[in-house]
Design a protein that fits this description.
- Helix content is 78%, strand content 0%.
- It is mainly α.
- The protein has one domain.
- Helix 2 packs antiparallel against helix 3.
- The longest helix has 27 residues.
- It is flat and about 45 Å long.
């Protein structure tokens, strides 16, 4: 338990940026909100895959690319 706590504190106190985690968090909320609000309209795995792509994978890729481009020295 103490090891997990120290790892979490080390992560939170770190100066390193994690754009992938930010993108995942920003996409997870609308995905969960949609499925919570419209549970009766959920009807296929393809729909879930589409929303995972739009709300999770696409933001992760965009945040990663923007972070990579901004780190480069022009």
């Amino acid at each position: 338990m103490f090891k997990l706590r120290s790892q979490i504190l080390t992560f939170l106190e770190s100066e390193k940026e994690y754009p992938v985690i930010a993108a995942f968090a920003s996409g997870l909320y609308p995905l969960l909100y949609y499925y919570n609000s419209n549970f009766t309209l959920v009807n296929s795995w393809e729909q879930l895959g589409f929303f995972v792509f739009c709300y999770i994978l696409l933001p992760v890729v965009v945040f990663y690319l923007i972070n990579t481009l901004l780190k480069k020295k022009w």
